Amino acid sequence: MIALPIVLPTAVCAQQTITVGPTDIGGTVTSAASPEAGVWVIAETTDLPIKFARIVVIDDRGRYLIPGLPIASYSVWVRGYGLVDSAKLTAKPGQLLDHTAVPAPNEPAAAHYYPAIYWYAMMKIPPVGDFGGKSDIPEKLTQTDWLKQTKNIGCIGCHQLGQEATRTIP
C-alpha cells in the first residue's frame, strides 16, 4: 500500500494520509489557491469487457479514494459545478494521482457540464395570474394543465428536458 501525505493549507497544518491499496486510485484535487471540496473524480475504462466507470466525491480537504477497481488502465478526471472537465490523466489501480481543478472561464462554459435535471430545476413556473388569457399563454390552458404537460404528459415523457439539445434548439 502507498500512503499519501497531504499538508493542509491552514493555520494548523495537520498531516493526513490516504491509504491507496492495490485496487484503488487516490490523491488530491486542488485549485489555484487551495484544495477543492465536493467535486467529482471520475475513473473510466474501456479495457474491460464492458465500459466501466466509478465516480467519487472528494472531501473538504480535497482528498479522494476510488476503491475496488478492476485491474485496467483508467482515464481519471475532475468534474464539478463552476468547473470545466480537467485533463484526463491515465492511471492504474494502486496509483496516487493528483488533479488540478479547472475553473470555467464563464457561466455558459460551466453550464455545459451541468446535469440536465439542473436545467429543468431552473425552469420558472408561470404564476396562476398569467393563465386565462392574461398573458401570451393560450387562454384555455390552466396552470394545472401546463404543469401536467411539463411534468409527465408532454415532452418529458420521452425526452430529458434540460439536456444540451433541448436548451440549444437552433
Report on this structure.
The chain has two domains: 2-104, Sandwich (Immunoglobulin-like); 116-167, no CATH class. It has helices spanning 107-111, 116-121, 143-153, 164-167; strands spanning 2-7, 15-20, 25-30, 40-45, 52-57, 63-66, 74-79, 83-84, 89-91, 95-96, 99-100, 102-103. It has 170 residues and is of the alpha+beta class. Strands 3, 6, 10 and 11 form a four-stranded mixed β-sheet that branches. Strands 5-4-7-9 form a four-stranded antiparallel β-sheet, with no helix packed on it.
Indicate the topology:
Layout lengths: L1 E6 L7 E6 L4 E6 L9 E6 L6 E6 L5 E4 L7 E6 L3 E2 L4 E3 L3 E2 L2 E2 L1 E2 L3 H5 L4 H6 L21 H11 L10 H4 L3
Parallel strand pairs: 3-10, 3-11
Antiparallel strand pairs: 1-2, 3-6, 4-5, 4-7, 7-9, 8-12
Strand content: 25-35%
CATH class of the largest domain: Mainly Beta
- Rg calc: 22 Å
Structural class, judged by helices and strands? alpha+beta
CATH superfamily of the largest domain: Carboxypeptidase-like, regulatory domain
Give average pLDDT, whole number: 82
C-alpha geometry: elongated
Separation, N- and C-terminal Cα atoms: 53 Å
Number of strands: 12
Q: What's the quaternary structure here?
A: single chain
Number of helical elements: 4
For the record, the count of structural domains works out to 2
Supply database-style keywords.
alpha+beta, Immunoglobulin-like, 2 domains, 4-stranded antiparallel sheet, 4 helices, 12 strands, 15% helix, elongated, disordered N terminus
